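Fig. S4 source data, part A: sequence.
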Amino acid sequence: MTGADQPPPADDPVKPPRWIEFAGRRWDVCQQRDFGNYFEASNVVVDVHGRLFLGIARHAGQWTAAQIALGEPLAHAEYALLVESPLDFPNNVVLSFALRRDDEHEIAIQLSPWWGRPSNAQFRIEDPERLPDGFLDTFRLPTDRPLTSHHIRWSPTSLDFACYDARPRFLRGSRLLHEAQLDIAIPTEGYQLVVGFWLFRGDAPGDNRDQRLWVRDVAIEEL
């Protein structure tokens, strides 16, 4: 056989691509190492009811995490994550809902008991060209709510964040838990919508147990 006819090496480290259908869209499933985490495709499942399961689990002695990214270009829109699990995560466990371009450009809602702080949630923007010092708003959410929604409204001239108790009460709809607004113009080019359930620095969960999270929906409403 000539070199051109030879098959690729058997130990080629590139894994085959994997994707899922969730919330009416196609998502790529991360299968690589990033930010100290090993992302494992088997930690991502869509059940028969159309809910997304994200897990953190030990595989072959190694803690592994879960992450998906929307496989389509983004537009200015309101992005919402509907979480159908309590937010009572142990230390080191992070749920991230982010609009992400690269390591230095990210718009995110992150839920975690960060480093022993009293807060367990934060709104965050990283954009060194437009915000040299970044933007960070930390706060505390109740951990016993069975259904919460988390919103990023990205317009051509502003970014609005909000978290809600999404379980209707007395027919009045969702209850606002925390919000923040920022006047800033960030173009959408190159950004992806990413949902991740991972470990801070790759360290084990504080309770040293597997973690489970259910997401009912990811909604996108263009402006």
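Fig. S4 source data, part B ends here. The CA atoms of residues 97 and 158 lie 18 Å apart.
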